Amino acid sequence: MNILVTGGAGFIGSHIVDQLIAKGHQVIIIDNLVTGQTDLINPQAVFYQEDITNAEQVNKIIQQHQIEVICHQAAQLDVRKSVQDPQYDAQVNIIGTINLFEAAHKNGVKKVVFASSGGAIYGDTDMLPTPETHPTDPISPYGIAKLVMEKYAHYYKTIYNIDYTALRYSNVYGPRQNTQGEAGVIALFISKMLQNQQCYINGDGNNTRDFVYVQDVVEANIQAILGDLSGSYNIATATQTNINQIFDILHQLTSTTITRQNREAKLGEQQHSCLSYDKIHQAINWQPQTNLQQGLLQTVEYFKSRG
Ligand SMILES: NC(=O)c1ccc[n+]([C@@H]2O[C@H](COP(=O)([O-])OP(=O)(O)OC[C@H]3O[C@@H](n4cnc5c(N)ncnc54)[C@H](O)[C@@H]3O)[C@@H](O)[C@H]2O)c1
User: Fold this and answer.
1) Do 145 and 163 belong to one domain?
2) Looking at the chain, which terminus has fewer C-beta neighbours within 10 angstroms, N or C?
3) Domain identity same for 155 and 271
4) Together in a domain, 156 and 206
């Protein structure tokens, strides 16, 4: 199958590309390398350094390669940046996505699988683990954009019969994660700890997140791309882990000598986030395969091997 992966030079996208190529598919990548890295690009993929906001180029690539399925991972994913510059966030996350759907319907693409965000679209909730039926009240432009993407997907399915799967990830971690972004507390801590540099916990560290390992996220994407899963699904572990626990496990795994230090909490930071994965489990039997201890160990090994 001819598959376009946007963001295929990034953390999650590059792992998806590798899996698709290992299964014998022809993979085309569009990535502008704003956070992606050339050394993550699978050499067997066809790579375009291009921006998804460039509608003409996006259409040309999809037409030229007779794309059958689009796996859309490219995004502006910094929540704070979305607050500072909502126009830029919307340009990439909303207009960029519309460009893909428009090119999809003009060129007979059958399906679009894309990365949504469970952490960002439900907003603050005391219903934990949060199911997909929970009201969506995003409290950031990033979360609004992810929700709008799902609405456009529904529109293109209804009007043009383009199938879609929206995968609402919780907090993804694992090898290749960028250490710069705010999504990557685990990558950030590991990289600091391996250099014995101080890292800080924002607030008291009792806030919790639902950390899902990247290979489990990749598996959900592969099943959505190759199978007939339609609609919106959480991809998560339904388990809450607080930041102090993360710090302590990584402290042990990296053998760092730094000590735990806290600093002022970030304004507007969500206290708890945890998603139910019952819906996708019932639909295709997906469930996370990697527990936190194993996943963190593999992530630490990866960062160690990079020196
Ligand atoms: N990492 C997480 O915890 C998490 C959680 C929820 C949702 N997501 C979503 O998963 C997807 C992948 O995120 P990731 O963690 O791999 O981040 P990442 O930054 O590693 O990957 C994003 C990729 O998109 C590319 N990109 C950004 N803007 C682009 C543009 N305008 N045109 C073309 N390429 C562009 C970047 O260069 C990068 O390679 C994103 O859609 C993100 O919103 C991630």
Assistant:
1) yes
2) C
3) no
4) no
Q: pTM for this structure? A: 0.98
Task: Give CA separation, 220 vs 13, 89, 192, 228, in Å.
Answer: 12, 26, 30, 12
Tell me the best of 15, 28, 35, 210 to mutate to test the pocket of ligand 1, counting ligand atoms within 8 Å of each CB and taking the most: 35
285: in domain: no
Distance from Cα 113 to the centre of ligand 1, integer Å: 14
Ligand 1 binding pocket includes 7 (Cβ within 6 Å): yes
Work out the average pLDDT over 106-119. 97
**Same domain, yes or no: 179 and 116:** no
Say if residue 253 is in the same domain as residue 269.
yes
94 lies in which domain range?
2-171+212-235
- Chain-wide mean pLDDT for the chain? 96
- Tokens 């795994």 map to which residue? 253
Provide the CATH number for the domain around residue 96. 3.40.50.720
Cβ–ligand 1 distance for 95 under 6 Å, the answer no
pLDDT digits (tens, 9 = 90+) for 1-42: 999 999 999 999 999 999 999 999 999 999 999 999 999 999
The answer to whether 36 and 77 have CB atoms below 8 angstroms apart is no
Same domain, 187 and 259: yes
The CATH number covering residue 176 comes to 3.90.25.10
pLDDT tens digits, one per residue of 58-80: 999 999 999 999 999 999 999 98
pLDDT at 207 over 90: yes
Counting from 1 in the atom list of ligand 1, the atom nearest the Cα of 37 is 39
- The residue whose CB lies within 8 Å of the most ligand 1 atoms, and thus the one to mutate among 14, 73, 274, is 73
Residue 43 contacts by C-beta under 8 Å, 6 or more apart in sequence? none
The answer to whether 210 touches 236, Cβ cutoff 8 Å, is yes
Q: Residue 242: which pLDDT band, with cuts at 50, 70 and 90?
A: very high
The secondary structure of residue 210, as a DSSP letter, is -
In a domain, 284, yes or no: no
Q: Is residue 216 scored above 60 in pLDDT?
A: yes
Under the banding of pLDDT at 50, 70 and 90, the label for residue 124 is confident
